[in-house]
Every structure is written in C-alpha cells, then in structure tokens.
Amino acid sequence: MPKSDSTALGNHSVQFQKIWIPGDGRCLFRSVVHGAWIRAGKPSPGESLEKELADELRAKVADEFIKRRRDTEWFLEDDFDTYVGQMRQPHVWGGEPELLMSSHVLKVPITVYMRDRNSGGLKTIAEYGQEYGKETPVCVLYHGYGHYDALRSQISSSQSKQIFAG
After folding, report:
1. Given 12, 104, 139, 147, which residue is catalytic?
2. Is 147 a catalytic site residue?
3. What is the pTM assigned to this prediction?
4. Helix (H), strand (E), coil (C) string for the chain
C-alpha cells in the first residue's frame, strides 16, 4: 500500500503519495512514465502497459543520447557507444544521465526527491528539464541504492483541474 510523505517546498508543504515501482531494472523509466501519466491527468497505467512504455522510453532515451552526443559524451563514465548500447538493454539501471534525457524526450521537468534522514521528510536532490517549465514536474523518489519509485503530489481537485487543463 502506498505511503504518504511530506516535504516543505518553498513557503508551503506538499504531500506526496509514494507509488511502488517494481525493482526490475526498469524502475527509473517506469517511475518517469508513471509520473508523466499522473502529470497528464491520466489514470495510472497497469503494470504491463507501464513496462511496455518504460521500454519505449528507454529506447527513446538511448536515441536522445545519440542525437545529443556532442553535449552528452563527456559526462558518461564509459565509452559512449558502449554506454548507449548497454542502456538499450531492458535490465540495465538508469541514473542521472537517463533522467536528463527523459526530460528532453518527454519535454517535461523532472524532480528527484530523496528521504531526508534528519527530518524524515523528502528533499529535492535534482531537477531536470527546467527549460520545459517548472510547474507540475514529474516527481520520482530515489532511495539511494539504485531504486526509484513514482511520487504523486496530493493537491486539491480544483488545483488539479487548473494544472492539467489544456
């Protein structure tokens, strides 16, 4: 059952519901896909569709690396072609580079949270795709050991209608 967490953002507090994502090597991509569906106001995709969409996002992310090779090659730890080839495999974990490329593929901001050990709440650890806006980012929770879950912000229905309209 999903748990709710809260964190202070700016001058107000936002409640989040953690949405459990299977740890199958696709968790980053599944979390981003799930968050993009939430952001679009769609009901959560089922596990089978989520897996399929995660694999599609992975392929598009690998293509985005190639498209942006001159801008991305320098920050990858391995040989570029080897890295991209490995990233196309369904059980290879994604990380910061894949989050950045996901924001470009989906043209949405992505915010990554982590649990703050001191407060027990959540803290922002990274933001990607800010050029696509700062409102209603796709939110994911990084657990610090290679696993990501999706986060759903708990906002009022009137705010939700405004955010997802148009």
Report:
1. 147
2. yes
3. 0.84
4. CCCEEEEEECCEEEEEEEECCCCCCCHHHHHHHHHHHHHCCCCCCCHHHHHHHHHHHHHHHHHHHHHCHHHHHHHCCCCHHHHHHHHCCCCCCCCHHHHHHHHHHHCCCEEEEEECCCCCCEEEEEEECHHHCCCCCEEEEECCCCCEEEEEEECCHHHHHHHHCC
